[in-house]
Write a structure and sequence with these properties.
By secondary structure, the chain is of the alpha/beta class. The chain has 20 helices and 13 strands. It binds 2-acetamido-2-deoxy-beta-D-glucopyranose (NAG) (4 copies). The site of one 2-acetamido-2-deoxy-beta-D-glucopyranose has 3 residues, from loops.
């Protein structure tokens, strides 16, 4: 399967080897430059790098701005737990192949590579930003995070210097390939997880902390890993006793499980530098927004009384004030530019729960600079505390909450609630959302990061995890 997609010249994933060669050439050119620049400089101390001086790593890390001077070690796992899954990309998700979305280190194919994606690049996107938009899929998150951590300035190759340990097991991809197979058994869905835990439990640094300073990242919602003992959907990775002490960074967390930490869904914006982010922020701030609110979603007409159906009715009743996009048939993933176009033209976006409480659309909306409107606290406030200001006094700075029961009872209308917010307050909220954009995106930055001290989603994740690992030392250290 992998060989087939690589050989297809029309498939953008086939460009990957070429990209690798280019990167290698660039890397060696850089090395040469550095070598030439420093060849002349006399440096008597440089020859004696202390290898076991415990003060040295602390100072290095503080210089590079890693939280508390900590560093992250990234395990090198047997390829069956990550790389091998990438080569099965054709069978990891139902309905479509993940292969193109796993290209470019998981960012997907650059916009505009897909048919029909031309609008975002030629009509909407400022030319200087063309290289920072990709067609990205949430299921690639595990790969995106792994790649970024490998080249992150807070990474150490020496586990003795690490404060936190990243386990790059692609658990979402691993379970994905068994979720829809009619003949897959519960044991099939858990086999990789059981094998991973048995490998991990044998590692000396795992044994030292019982896993309290270890973490993983999951590109599927937590409920896909919490199959109940009497059967049902998903795998049971997160319920396995062997995972009990490991922090799970996951796109939708279980609000009652303190080991789950919410992280953003990947959007299609992968800026390379702080300048890319600022250009987009200026652009998103300056767009005219003729619609008061917008909604992108697939109505589940089969479900009687589905809340999304109610929102669609509200939108129709609001006439020109509202605009919708039907996400049926995977349209909002395959043609994400249509979603961005929708949200760039609206001041607010509606974010009901769907099949689960969270949705990628929350992040598309905020990256587009529109203010999200929530109907369940579990959609964001109880999810992403590392990334968005939460708590009753702060949620209103960047979002609106509407009581779904009052809406159902007909006591309020969405248009009524939103139109009553003073224009100055709307502007303030929009500014707040736009300020938050860098932390909500997975950058395509190199080792230096976005620069200018600007942090992206992975930087926030590392800071948070380094702090958490340092706090949890109390749980295992004697
Ligand atoms: C691109 O824009 C044109 C005009 O704005 C529109 O008619 C067309 O449907 C758009 N194409 C896609 C793929 O959205
Ligand atoms: C399930 O069926 C597919 C083909 O239908 C087959 O390739 C696969 O080996 C089967 N898996 C198991 C666990 O029986
Ligand atoms: C989790 O931590 C507790 C306390 O530190 C320890 O007793 C237990 O064995 C650990 N569990 C695993 C699976 O490592
Ligand atoms: C809607 O309004 C009525 C009348 O004021 C009130 O009795 C009812 O509790 C309200 N419903 C909700 C869900 O707030």
């Amino acid at each position: 399967m992998a060989a087939m997609y690589r050989a297809d010249p029309a498939n953008p994933a086939a460009r990957r080897p070429r990209l690798v060669v280019l990167l290698l050439v660039a890397f060696f050119a850089l090395q040469l430059l550095v070598f030439l620049a420093f060849r002349q400089a006399p440096s008597p101390t440089a020859t004696r790098m202390p290898e076991s001086d415990s003060e040295a790593p602390r100072r290095d890390a503080e210089d590079s701005g890693c939280a508390g001077g900590g560093l992250v070690y990234v395990y090198e796992l047997p390829p069956v737990f990550n790389e091998d899954l990438l080569s099965m990309c054709g069978v990891l998700a139902p309905m479509y192949s993940l292969c193109p979305y796993l290209a470019n280190d998981g960012l997907g194919f650059p916009v505009p590579a897909a048919k029909g994606a031309a609008n975002l690049s030629t009509e909407i996107l400022p030319a200087e930003l063309a290289g920072s938009w990709y067609s990205s899929d949430q299921f690639a998150l595990e790969h995106i995070v792994h790649r970024r951590l490998l080249s992150h300035r807070c990474r150490t190759a020496d586990p003795a210097r690490a404060t936190a340990f990243f386990v790059p097991f692609y658990a979402g991809l691993a379970v994905g390939r068994h979720l829809w197979a009619a003949n897959a058994t519960d044991a099939d869905r858990d086999r990789d997880c059981v094998a991973l835990l048995s490998w991990l439990h044998a590692q000396p640094y795992y044994k030292r902390s019982h896993g309290w300073d270890h973490f993983i990242a999951l590109g599927r919602i937590t409920w896909d890993f919490r199959r109940s003992p009497d059967g049902g959907w998903g795998g049971s990775f997160l319920l396995m006793p062997g995972l009990a002490n490991i922090t799970r960074l996951v796109i939708e967390r279980d609000p009652w499980d303190a080991m789950d930490v919410g992280i953003p869904y990947p959007t299609s914006f992968h800026p390379r530098t702080a300048a890319d982010v600022r250009a987009w922020q200026r652009y998103a701030s300056s767009r005219p927004r003729p619609n008061l609110f917008a909604f992108a979603g697939a109505p589940r007409s089969a479900i009687k009384g589905d809340f999304r159906g109610l929102l669609l009715e509200e939108c129709q009743a609001a006439g020109d004030a509202c605009s919708t996009l039907d996400c049926g048939e995977g349209r909002c993933i395959k043609q994400n530019e249509l979603v961005m176009q929708l949200f760039l033209g609206a001041r607010f976006c509606l974010q009901p729960r769907g099949d689960s409480f969270t949705r990628r659309s929350i992040f598309d909306c905020m990256v587009a600079g529109a203010v999200p409107v929530f109907f369940w606290r579990r959609s964001a406030y109880l999810q992403y505390a590392w990334y968005v200001p939460v708590g009753n006094d702060q949620e209103g700075e960047w979002s609106v909450f509407i009581d779904r029961d009052e809406l159902r009872a007909g006591n309020v209308t969405i248009r009524g609630v939103l139109a009553a917010i003073p224009e100055a307050k709307v502007q303030e909220m929009r500014n707040r959302v736009v300020e938050m954009i860098p932390k909500l995106v997975y950058s395509a930055a190199d080792k230096e990061g976005l620069g200018d001290g600007m942090k992206d989603a992975v930087d926030v994740m590392i800071d948070g995890m380094l702090r958490r690992a340092a706090e949890q030392r109390r749980s295992w250290r004697v």
